[in-house]
Structure formats: structure tokens, C-alpha cells
Amino acid sequence: MGAATPVVELKQITKVFPGIIANDSISFKLHKGEIHALLGENGAGKSTLMNVVFGLYQPEEGSIEVNGEPVIIDSPNRAIELGIGMVHQHFKLVQPFTVTENIILGSEPKKGTRINYKKATEEIRQLSEQYGLQVNPNAKIHDISVGMQQRVEILKTLYRGAEILIFDEPTAVLTPQEISELMEIMKRLVAEGKSIILITHKLKEIMQIADNVTIIRRGKVVDTVKKSETTPQELAEKMVGRNVTFKVDKKPAEPGSVVLEMANIVSNNKEGTAVLQGLNLQVRAGEILGIAGVDGNGQSELIEALTGLRHVDGGTVKLLGQDITNMSPRKITESGVSHIPEDRHKHGLVLDFSVSENMVLETYYKPPFNKGGFLNFDAIDKHATRLVERFDVRTPSIATHARSLSGGNQQKAIIAREIDKNPTLMIAAQPTRGLDVGAIEFVQQQLIAQRDQGKAVLLISFELDEIINVSDRIAVIYEGQIVGEVLPEKTNDQELGLMMAGSTAKRGAAHE
Amino acid sequence: MDVLTIIGQLINTTLVFATALIFTSLGGIFSEKSGVTNLGLEGLMIFGAFAAGVAGFYAQDAGLSGFGAACVGVLAAMVFGILVSLIHAVASITFKADQVISGIVINFLAAGSTLYMVKLLFDGAGETGLISGFDKVNIPYLSTIPLIGDVFFHAYPTTYLAVVAVIVTYFVLYKTPFGLRLRSVGEHPSAADTVGIKVNRLRYIGVMLSGALAGIGGATITLTTTGTFSHNTISGQGYIAIAAMIFGKWNPWGAFGAAVFFGLAQAVRNYVQLFAWTQSIPQEVIYMLPYVLTIIVLVAAVGRSSAPSALGQPYDPSKR
Amino acid sequence: MNNILKAITKDSFVLPIVAIIMGLILGAIVMLIGGYNPIDAYSALLTRVYGDPYDFGEAIREMTPLIMTGMAFAFAARAGLFNIGGEGQFLIGMTAATVVAVQLHGLPAYIHAPLAIIAGAIFGGLWAAIAGFLKAVRGVNEVISCIMLNWIGLYLANFVINHFMLLQGQNRSEDIQPSASIAIMWLSEMMGNARVHWGTAIALAAAVFFYVFMWKTKQGYELRAVGFNQDASKYAGMNVNRNIVKAMFISGMFAGLAGSFEVLGVFQYQSVMASSPGTGFDGIAVALIGLNNPFGIILGSILFGTLTYGSAGMSFSADVPPEIVRIVIGAIIFFIAAQGIVRWVLKPFYAKRKKEKVL
């Protein structure tokens, strides 16, 4: 790309929210036909910046130019008019509507007063062929795969004539194979003259597909480099601001006896289909078993079956030899199982309770917290104070509502509570989701510390790197079954990706 | 009276009761499809019945024919319903108040304020002056068919208007861009927002349509049954309309069917005494019937999965 | 005590006060438009309530059931439930108390009255528990089921009176046995025969119970957790369904007690009612004014009772239609529900407080 006018240029964009400067004087150029990655940690300001470009936020300072002309983008409508389209991380798709309805929403072709569905379907079919984005126009969103949903998101932007596409963390929910497919789609888009901004924190993808990288840290631009002139190591250091080791520091594991045994677990959902289809799993004391898999293959159901939140229709779950199948959640917890849930706001904390009330969420009914039906606030407060200190949970006081804590501190509070129960089995589901590097390190170290103390740890994560780095053993889950077990040091992304997608070639096409 | 005549009259009465319910439940659908819970339908019906009674009276006083005055009444009810619904809209959409409470506030205000205004306008009387309202009309040709002609094709014009309203509502909601956008706003407002749809503006329209339709619903009671408005003109129909909407799974034709069903349950009350075998059933049990049936159907039908996904949640753009 | 002081000085206490003032002002405006004098009207209202012992006693009588139905709504609200079935629970509780009070003979007062009261509480609770059960087991929205149960309750109450206890030639039940009455005769005489009764004392005690139960016991902790976040409560091992039913039961008990007070303390009989008395719905307004807090509810019912009882004075002395009071109350709860409006009005008076966000 030579000295041609950039299609989009951001000049010293500053965006402020109460208490935070999300974007601090950011300048950025995107040229035609370029794939430009925007790299940064969670909370660095990437999404905010793109929301400014897309008209969802207005910057306090700075200006935007499209094709050399200064513009004010005061709404998504304006952005769309200017040819900017966004493929969101959390798809903005209306579940009960069809693919076609979602694509045309807001720009419906008309015949008199009615919507002209024939014309719409035809237009979508043409776009679909031109860019290799295969979709089923009449399918409802809640029936189609995640990969197809993303293609619908992309078609939405193309239908409105987008020339500049912003992809916000597009690979979070895809298998390695689907990621490759997405890469091909992006190359095709660029070949047809589109320009792409790729927001991501995944170095591997940047090295694969991007032409240029702009690194953002704490709202400021750190640097803009050409992909060909840099390395993942360098990018990581710029992203975090210090030396980054990719490996997690841990001694080799010394697994003991079997703590958890899941044999032939079958569980059906409301419609009668089996979400867990004969699942077999074993975790030993003193080891971390990581479960790798694409979201939606039974991970949540596995955890629910383990923690008593879901009915097990077949098979047994044994903890230290004792059958805990279908016991109530409370009894299972009392048997020695701790659980760090994947959605800390929904399942882990009562945000409107104070920190100290949250610390006894599972133990309030036991002495010393419960004295004859009445709560013993002295004991509760002492308990909370101790945990807050030991696990360095930053909070103004234990009476503060959990809602006011940052994501990292909320997670620390949950971990503090779960570890303090001194469990035999610790289940950690997406424990580092949405956390910054410091908090991620803390969480991973805590899990390893638990394992070193002889606990059994079950780790479920969508981040393959985390699974590979932290686990002692890896099991891959696919369509409600464990389809393979490997040792982290003896495997790679490719192999894991194949297993996560069903392994054998003939099953690969079944999804779409 | 022979059985056929009684059944014929029963259907007639059903249609009268059902008409009010049809209009009101259609109104509820527009509001809730856009994502705003509207429990204030009862209050809106009261305001509508009141407006029709007052406007109709003054129109008749001014010399308009019975039919003309009644039409004025309908229009007045529509306008008044829209205005009152704005209270709910402003509170719950702009000020993000709890939508259930906001709807209850409308109901609370309705009884007191309408009675206050009636006393002001009619010299302390507890009800509006009597008006003639609508007369039944005959659909040409069809009403001469023996037996069913008199039953189905000789009814109040408001009943036929109600059926037209159902057809129009269905068309608007499912065939037009407006309808698609309205429904998107109730299912996934953030998705609508990012394609440039004005979420809150559409929600305002949804609530105002509910005000208009529920107002008309209330007006039909004044204009076809009682001829006046007093404190017990509307007693509970608004809530039954909500139930009809839920049974109908927020679909206009479903609500229509449910409204007819409830209309029948209410109509049955008047006729049950006529048969010997029914006379031994206590009166109160007959009165209870529609409500017990509602609960039974609610339990059996489990309609919750058809509710618009974003129903009841104020839209906050900063939480995109 | 400390908590009450803290609650009073928190800024959330300001909201209802301002809403009340705004509601009274709106009422004054409506009166002016109608050609009435608001000053005359409001002073007539106050005179009527606080003017002499009889009226004062009757005003207290009017406020008492509101405390109970207010707490009924608030208790369920704390557990995340909208109990708008207070009407039906009130009537069913009333009917149960009437049955015990009328039909049982030969019991001494210290057994009969408490028995009637307990019957009222339990049946009110059971009626509410139906809605709770339907929600827990079948996911039926409690708003609709409560509305239906309100009507069924009305007709069921009438049925029982009409078919088992009807006073010949009248539209009401027979009188209750004197041994079941909870009227306080000596106090009543002191207050010009105003119908004061033990129910008021029970209501105040119930408010204390509400407070202690909700915030000091493990049961209350569970209910509040479920009310705030059902998912987290489930994950923490709490039985959400059981808590829903429990919360509705206790909530219904409050409403049922209100109904029993009316029969056992005030009227000494139960009428056959053409329509629902409205005490349950009024309780919702009181609960909103009192911010779902038991002590706020006591204050709210004092306000509400003053306005409603005093409205008769307005129509006698200042010739203002008493319905104006419903408009005032409606406006007050509107302003409380749409807090944003009040905050907007208060913006110039407020120094913005910083949120405690921790990084």
C-alpha cells in the first residue's frame, strides 16, 4: 500500500467515561485492501475505539476521515452510509427471525407496503455466492450453527454496501478449522476490494492474516508495525508492557488416586435429545485435567451434571468412590466439591449483596454463621475479612456491594470463597474470562497451588493456550462425549483442533 | 325459548363481550411485541370508556345523530387512550421505571380521575349522561341467510371493526417493515439499534398503539352495552385482555381466538340460569368460571416461551 | 435502631418525600383547574383526620389493614415476586376468620380470637401459595395468576357467606361470636366509639417480624438472595422453588391477617361484596411509597390512611370530590416509580456523589 489516501483515518481520538479515559489521543490509519489488526488486552480500549468508528459513541476530542473527507459519525446509520460495517463479537441477531429477516432488518426492500422477501432472498443469494458465505436464507437463527451465524453477521454488513469491515474478536467461538475458513473469507473480501480492521487479542491469528498491527495498551497507542517485521513475542510484550513468558511456571504433577469418576453419563434436554452421550472422565488428586472443546459441545451440561444442577439420566458420578449422581447441589458441595462458575455475574455472585454476604453464599446455613436460625454477623464479617486479606480482593470494605468491584476482584472473591471450602474437587469454568493479565496469572497460580496441595482440579476453558499451559492432562469434548485424551507437551493446536471438530473427516461437514 | 334461539343469542352476546377484549388484547400485543409490558390496559379501557361516554354525550347534545355521536365517541376514546398511554411510555421508556408498576399506576389513576372528571362535568352525578351509542347493523345479503344470518351478520359495527383490526394487525406485524422492526425491538433491541433502528421511538409507538386500541376497546362497552360510563363500566376486562394476549401467544389471531373464548365465558353467565340442570350450580361458581379456566389454560399451555425476549427490560444504550 | 437512622439519612429516603410533595402539588393543580381551593381542601382533610378522638381512632382503623397489605406486597417483592394478589388473599383470609368466628361456639375468648386470626393468616397464605406454586412448578407468571385468583377469591368468599352463614334477609354473614372479637372496647369508648382493635398492635408487631426475618435470619437471607439473583442462588445450593412458595405464603399471610382484622375488629361480620374492596391494591401503593421497607410502609400507610380518611372531610367541608385523593396518590406512586423524574427535578439541589468503583 503506497501513499494512497487511507480509507479510514482516526486522528487523536479521545473518549472518556466517568472515571476512565478509554481512548487517549489515538491515531490510526487503514488503507484500501488492508487487513489491519488492533491488538490489546481486555479493557485496553479496542472495542471502545471501534464503537466510536461505528457511531455508537461520540469522541470527546479528535476527528475521523473517510477517504480523505472529515466526517462526523453520530450514529450507526451514518457509519453504514459511509460504508463502515461491524461484525460484532456477540452477534446482534434476532433469534426467532430468519437469516433473511436479520440481514434486511432496517433496510427492507419493499413492494408497496409489504416487504419484498423474494427480492431480498435473491440479493442475499448473490452476495452469498460472490463472497463464498454459505447460508440458508429461510432458517431461523436459533436453529443454525455458530459459524453460519457469523456469516449472517458478515452478510448484514455487505448487504448495506460496507467497504470497511470491522471484526470484533471473531474467533472466540470458532474451532481451529472454522477459524481457517474465516481467514479464507477475509482474504476473499480483501480481494474484492474491502478493507478490514480485526480486533483481537490472539497473536496467532494476527501473524496468520494481518498486514499491519496497531497495539493499544490502557487506551493509548503503543506502536503500529508491519506483521512481516515483527514476532509474537514482540507483540505480546508491547501489548502487556513487560516481559511475557508464555509458559506457566509449575512443577510436574504427582497424581494420586482417582477423585472424580464419571462413567457413561447420559443427560437429555427438554426436547429429548441427548446433550451428554455416554461421557467418561476421570480426575486424580494432585492433577489438573483440562477440557478442551468448542462452546456448545456439552461443557456447561457436564458441569451441571457434576454440580447437581442437571438431571443425569444414565451413568454414575462418583466422588472418592461415593456415588453422588443426582444428589442435590447442596449435598454435593458438602461432599467436597467447589465450583468457580463461568458466568460470575449470573451464577457466582449476588451483585446486590455485600462482599461479606457473598462470602457465605454457600455456607450461611451452617454454624458459626447460622445460630439457631439467626445470622451471626460477627462470624460472617470475620470470615469475609480474612478471605479478602488472604486473596487480596480489592474492595473499600466488606460491606460494599459486589456490583461495585471490578471483574478481576469479583473473580478473586469467588475463588477465595471456593478455595476456602477446602474442596476435594475444584471445578473451574472459564476462570480467566474477561480478566487482565495480572488477574489471569493469579487465577492460574491458584489452580496450580490447589493441585500441588493434592486437590483434583477440573479446568474447562475455550482458550486453547490456557488449557495447554495449565493442564497436566487434556481431554477433548465433542458432542457430549470425551473423544480423546492427550498430554499437553505431546500435542499441538492442529491435533486438538481436529478432535474438537469431531476428528474424522466424514463428520466434519455435518455442522452446516 | 328454544335451544337454537338461545345459542344464537349466546353467540351474539359473546361477540359483544369479545369485541372489547379483541381490541384491547391487540393493543397489548403492540406494546409487548415492542418490549414494553403493559398492565395498564384496564386503566386505558376505563379512560377510553369515559372519553366515549363524555364525547358521545356532548356530540349528541350538539345535534349529531346517534351513529355520528358514537363515532365521535370512538375517536375521542382513541385520542384519550393515546394520551394516557404516554404516561406509561414516558415513565417506563424514558425514565426506565419498572414497567409492571408503571402499568399498575395507570390503573390506579384511572378509576379515581375519571370519576372525578365525571362529577365535574355532570354536576356531581356518578355517571355520564345516557347516549344511544351504536345500533346493530346488517351485512347486506349475508344477514338474510336463515339461522346464522341473524347471529353472525347482524351485529354492532364495532364487532366487524374488531375483526378488521385483527387482520390489519397481523398484516402490519408480519408483512411490513414497520412490523419487522417493532418485533426486533422487542426481541433484541441492541441488534435493532446497531442497524440504525430507533428503539425507544418504536417502543413509544407500540405503547401509543396500545393506548389507542385499548381506549377503543373500552369505548365499545359504553357505546354498545351500557350507554353511559360509571365506576363499574369496566371491571376486569382489561386484565382478561392481558390473559387473552398471553394465551394467544402474542399473535393477533391467537388473541382473537382467546378473546372469543373469554367473551363466551362471560356471556354464559347470563344464559346459564335458563336451563334446569344449570340452575343448581351456584351463581358464584358461574362467575368464577372464566378466571378458573384462565388458570387451567395457563398451566397447561406454558406460554412463557413465546413472550418477546426483551419484554419488560428498559433499553439502555450504554449497555450495548 | 442504627439501621433505621442509616436508612433515614440515606439519599434514597429523599425520593419518596419529594414524590409525596410533588403529588400533593399536582393534586392542588387539579383542584384549581376544577375550580376548588386546594388550601381549604387540604386543611379540611387534616382536620377530619386529626380533629377529634373519634376521627383519629377511625383513621387508625383505616390505616391498619394497609400496613398489612403493604407488607404483603413488599415481602414478596424482596423475594423477587410481584404479588398483586393481595385482594384475593385478603378476602380468603377474611372468610376463613369469619368461618371460625361465626361457626365455632363455646370457646373462651383467649382461644377463639387467636384461632380466628391464625385461620385468616393461614388461608391467606395458602391462597398466595397457589400462585407461588404455579410459578415454581409451571413457570406461570405470578402477575396473571394473582389477578385471576383475586376474582376467584371474591366469588369464593361470597359463595361461602351466601351458602353457609347468611343472615336472613341481609347481604351479609351472621355476626361473629363475641368471643372472637378483637375490638378493644375500653379504648374504643375513650375515643368516642371509634373502632380500634388489637389488629393495629399485631400489625406493628408484624412489621418488626418482617424486619427481623428478612435481614437477621438465614431464611430471610435465602429469600433475598433468590429475589436478587435466582441463578446464583441455585448455583449456591438454595432451593429456589421452595423459596418462591415460602415467600408467597408468608406474603399471603400478611394480607390474610388484614382481612381477618376487618371482620374480627371492625365490622364483626362479613358482607357479600359486589366488587373487590381494593385494600390489596392500596397496599401496593403503600409498599411503593414505603420503598418495600416495613417501617417505611408504616409511614406510608399513615400517609395513605390520612389522605383516604380525610377525603370525606374534603367533600363535606370544601365540596371537593373525594376522588381527587386517588389522583394525588396515583401521582405520588407514579413519581416514585419513575424515579428519574424526581431526580431530574432535584438535579440543581444535588451534589453528585461519586460511585465507588474499584480498579
Automatic annotation (TrEMBL), chain B:
GO molecular function: transmembrane transporter activity
Transmembrane segments: 6-27, 39-59, 65-88, 100-118, 151-173, 204-226, 238-264, 285-303
Membrane-topology descriptor: Multi-pass membrane protein
InterPro entries per UniProt: ABC_transp_permease
Cited PANTHER family: GUANOSINE ABC TRANSPORTER PERMEASE PROTEIN NUPQ, SUGAR ABC TRANSPORTER INTEGRAL MEMBRANE PROTEIN-RELATED
Entry keyword annotation includes RNA-binding: no
Compartments where found: Cell membrane
Entry keywords, A to Z: Cell membrane, Membrane, Transmembrane, Transmembrane helix
GO CC entries: plasma membrane
Name under which the protein is recorded: Putative ABC transporter permease protein YufQ
UniProtKB/TrEMBL annotation, chain C:
Signal peptide: none
Xref: Pfam families: BPD_transp_2 (PF02653)
Keyword presence, Cell membrane: yes
GO MF term list: transmembrane transporter activity
Keyword Membrane set for record: yes
Subcellular location: Cell membrane
Gene Ontology CC terms: plasma membrane
Keywords of the record: Cell membrane, Membrane, Transmembrane, Transmembrane helix
Topology term for the membrane: Multi-pass membrane protein
Transmembrane segments: 12-36, 63-81, 88-107, 113-134, 146-165, 196-214, 244-267, 324-346
Protein name according to UniProt: Putative ABC transporter permease protein YufP
Organism, as annotated: Paenibacillus nuruki
